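Quick one, tokens below:
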């Protein structure tokens, strides 16, 4: 089995759209990322790979997750295409290129793309992707090259409002 975990960046500041790439996390966003990633840690979910948009709010979210999941943040790969926007087919290409020794890969990025990826990779996703929403999708395959659209099963969805 292979698992993809899709994480929308945590809550960011509501200004700075003239320099959207450098928008930072709000304190609430940092706290949400900490809570959600700690919940993953409690559930025994580990990351074998982390790939993030290089935008400040996404990479900071990834670093918080890395710290709480005991993943070396120096090993977080940054991919500009995640920020620029990918089609589901292009996102699948990223998945297909993952090393085979990786069992669980985390991706950190932005809506609306990340909502579409969850919707298009899973058999039935009826949820939403608010900030810091974290969705695990399991694929009953042995190789990343076998992952196909609409073939994954939702393993979990964790959202910050679960902790309120």
């Amino acid at each position: 089995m292979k698992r993809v975990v899709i994480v929308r960046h945590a809550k960011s500041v509501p200004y700075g759209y003239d320099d959207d790439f450098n928008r930072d996390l709000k304190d609430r966003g940092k706290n949400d990322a900490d809570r959600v990633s700690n919940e993953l840690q409690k559930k025994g979910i580990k990351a074998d790979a982390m790939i993030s948009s290089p935008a400040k709010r996404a990479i900071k979210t990834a670093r918080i997750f890395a710290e709480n999941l005991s993943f070396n943040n120096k090993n977080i790969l940054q991919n500009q295409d995640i920020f620029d926007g990918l089609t589901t087919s292009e996102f699948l290409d990223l998945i297909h290129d993952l090393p085979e020794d990786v069992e669980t890969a985390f991706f950190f990025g932005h809506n609306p793309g990340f909502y579409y990826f969850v919707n298009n990779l899973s058999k039935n996703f009826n949820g939403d992707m608010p900030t810091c929403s974290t969705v695990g999708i399991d694929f009953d395959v042995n190789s990343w090259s076998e992952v196909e659209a609409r073939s994954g099963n939702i393993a979990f969805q964790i959202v910050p409002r679960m902790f309120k």
